[in-house]
Design brief:
Blueprint (H helix, E strand, L loop, with lengths): L16 H5 L2 H4 L4 H20 L5 E6 L5 E5 L16 H7 L23 H6 L1 E10 L2 E8 L2 E8 L9 E8 L11 H14 L4 E6 L6 E5 L4 H9 L4 E2 L5 E7 L2 E11 L5 E6 L2 E2 L5 H20 L12 H4 L3 E9 L4 E2 L5 E2 L2 H21 L1 H28 L26 E6 H11 L5 E6 L11 H6 L1 H10 L22 H8 L4 E5 L4 H17 L1 H5 L3 E4 L4 E5 L2 E5 L2 H11 L5 E4 L8 H9 L6 E3 L5 H12 L3 H11 L9
Parallel strand pairs: 1-7, 12-14, 17-18, 17-19, 19-20
Antiparallel strand pairs: 1-2, 2-6, 3-4, 3-6, 4-5, 7-8, 9-11, 10-11, 11-14, 12-13, 15-16, 20-24, 21-22, 21-23
């Protein structure tokens, strides 16, 4: 009661207690992304040493039981007594939020951890942690239990290895995280990314958990230029090598590498600030986009390349088929949001703009053939966009969509608040019929699609918008939310920053879009085609957390009066063991249409019982690579991919 609200009710969380109480505030979540982030926080400290010029090698090892060890050959965390705290400096770093050599400006000029909370959070969220420091010809060890020092800093036996460095070894706290199984692919990709961003640094990754240990070694002297080449490895570049520019001004260092590819029409741009991936862009990305549009248009006017002198090339035209990496390093980055997803330093836009303006202008003047290739590609994009405008109007939402707009397809829901509503995209009339009868009409809409939708990986804008099923899908979910196909891009040509996810959510008709296909080869193919469409042309819907994949059961086990659903082979085995295999009947669902409406509701659509996978953008670059391989025009990369992963397939319908 508010009448009894007194001082003794105010809870003060000391030290790292606040981290354990509210872990999501510090690492984003207690799911896989938050768990993997623990490794990244420790590695970031080693990379900071590398950027300062003191570290050449970083080794990351995931041992059995998900114990992690990160070792570097940097200077080693100081172990002398801290004047204010009266304890060794390494203990201050390990137990105090926002403590380290990054904050006074003397330890590091550039750091990726300025906005983070560092290794102290890893310590707080670990069951136990050991830190070993090698410096001053001695080795020191300190151990912690759930963030609390368990053993004082003391000298240990001599270390055979580098003269200086730090080793952090920890095990995540299973009482904090949903599970403590690290995602090897995500860790591996981030370490490879760091190797590209820090040319010359040797990063070794070992995963010892499987039957066959995995070891990767990364070192790239070519930096982000090599990164662009890797991103376009399975595509046909418009020109080679990528354009690369680097400049340093006072406390700012800017690197940009980019090229264009044929037969791919989306923009693939990654931006970084102090090695931190800025997924929402920021001022460095704005500066790049603004300068690119201006410089290429100036070149086109100078050589009279524009078809219509009154209609310059737009930023959207110039971003079609663009692969680029923008990396800035600065002393005092200002990140917007707890998770460092957007750079906010206003001065950075002008610095990047200036670099691109001068560097790209000089480059295309010296290489006019490349400049003309860029202009011609953008002109084709401009023409296609104009031709598609009429088709776009067919799917542009002019008023609130009613089910009568799409007779026989969309069965809309009665609620008009998008935040309450969800739409199921289902395969065929049979599944659509069961879903329509089994749904809750108040908040669940059903959209049956006939046949396989267009593979947008290989198609231009006009062809995409001419496809009936794609048009139906866009109209149903809200045309304004599909920014990849919009004539008016979410980000203006001038690079002005807006909250893109907020814009998308405002234009979506349903805040949950659920792909629900059959559990067979055709269903998997349709699901992949739909995921390709959303990834390439409605990526902000994924980033907004609005795209899901339904998880219908694969089996129904019957024994007497008992009916138990199994969602995978492991559940089937455990169900058979629990019920007894004798006289147990097993029904394998190959299609949603085989379920009656009540069964579909009970297993897949009831919010209280269903299980759905939320599609996220944790690793957009890796997803881009997979989509390019599996859905692109090149046959050899797809063949190699299938041969590599064929043994991991557990079952397949024929």
């Amino acid at each position: 009661m508010t009448q009894n609200y007194k001082a003794d009710q105010i809870k003060v969380l000391e030290g790292l207690e606040a981290v354990r109480k509210r872990p999501g505030m510090y690492i984003g979540s207690t799911g896989k992304p938050g768990l993997n982030h623990l490794i990244f926080e420790v590695v970031d400290n080693s990379i900071d040493e590398a950027m300062a010029g003191y570290c050449k090698t970083v080794e990351v090892v995931i041992e059995k039981d998900n114990i992690v060890q990160v070792t570097d050959d940097g200077r080693g965390i100081p172990i002398d007594k801290h004047k204010e705290k009266g304890v060794p400096a390494v203990e201050v770093v390990m137990t105090t939020l926002h403590a380290g050599g990054k904050f006074e400006g003397e330890g590091y000029k550039v750091s990726g951890g300025l906005h983070g909370v560092g290794v102290s959070v890893v310590n707080a969220l670990s069951d136990w942690l050991e830190v070993t420091v090698r410096r001053d010809a001695k080795q020191y060890l300190q151990t912690y239990y759930r963030g609390t020092p368990k053993k004082e800093v003391g000298e240990t036996t001599p270390y055979e290895g580098a003269d200086t460095g730090t080793k952090v070894r920890f095990k995540p706290d299973a009482t904090i995280f949903d599970d403590i199984e690290f995602t090897s692919e995500v860790i591996d990709h981030r370490l490879r990314e760091l190797a590209f961003l820090n040319p010359g640094v040797h990063i070794v990754y070992k995963d010892l958990r499987g039957e066959e240990p995995v070891e990767q070694s990364y070192r790239y002297e070519g930096g982000i230029k090599s990164y662009v080449e890797l991103m376009d490895e399975n595509k046909t570049p418009l020109f080679n090598p990528p354009i690369y520019m680097k400049s340093q001004r006072e406390e700012y260092e800017v690197e940009v590498a980019f090229q264009y590819v044929n037969d791919y029409y989306d923009e693939n741009v990654l931006s970084f600030a102090n090695n931190i991936r800025t997924r929402e862009g920021g001022t460095h990305l704005s500066g790049f986009r603004t300068a690119l549009t201006r410089v290429v248009n100036n070149f086109a006017r100078k050589y009279d390349l524009l078809k219509d002198k009154k209609t310059p090339l737009s930023g959207q035209d110039l971003r079609e088929g663009l692969t680029a990496i923008i990396s800035v390093k600065l002393h005092n980055p200002q990140f917007e949001g707890q998770t460092k997803t957007k750079l906010g330093n206003s001065e950075v836009k002008g610095i990047v703009d200036s670099l691109i303006d001068q560097g790209l202008s000089d480059y295309i003047e010296m290489n006019p053939k490349v400049g003309k290739l860029i202009v011609n590609k953008a002109l084709v994009a401009q023409q296609v966009r104009a031709a598609a405008r009429k088709a776009q109007e067919l799917v542009r939402r002019k008023s609130s969509l009613e089910s009568t707009t799409l007779p026989g397809k969309l069965a809309d829901c009665s609620d008009r608040d998008p935040s309450n509503c969800e739409i199921y995209i289902v395969e065929g009339d049979s599944a659509g019929g069961s879903a329509k009868q089994g749904r809750d009409r108040n908040f669940q809409a059903i959209l049956p699609l006939r046949g396989k939708v267009l593979n947008v990986e290989k198609a231009r804008l006009d062809k995409i918008l001419a496809n009936e099923e794609i048009r139906t899908l866009i109209t149903a979910i809200g045309p304004g939310a599909v920014s990849g196909l919009s004539q008016e891009p979410v980000n203006g040509d001038g690079g002005e920053e807006v909250d893109e996810i907020k814009v998308v959510l405002e234009k979506l008709r349903y805040h949950k879009i659920v792909i629900m296909t059959d559990a067979d080869v055709d269903g998997a193919h349709i699901r992949t085609l739909l995921l390709t469409f959303f990834f390439r042309h409605a990526r902000h819907i994924i980033e907004a957390g609005a795209l899901y994949i339904a998880q219908p059961p694969l089996y129904l086990v019957k024994k007497g009066a008992k009916r138990v659903y199994a969602y995978n082979d492991d559940e089937l085995e455990s169900t058979l063991e629990a019920l007894g295999r004798e006289k147990a009947g097993i029904q394998r669902y190959k299609g949603l249409g085989e379920m009656n409406p009540d069964q579909l509701w009970e297993t897949t659509m009831d919010p209280d019982k269903r299980s759905m996978l939320q599609v996220n953008m944790d690793d957009a670059e890796q997803a881009d690579e997979v989509f390019s391989v599996l859905m692109g025009s090149e046959v050899e990369p797809r063949k190699a991919f299938i041969e590599k992963y064929a043994r991991q397939v557990r079952w397949i319908d024929v």
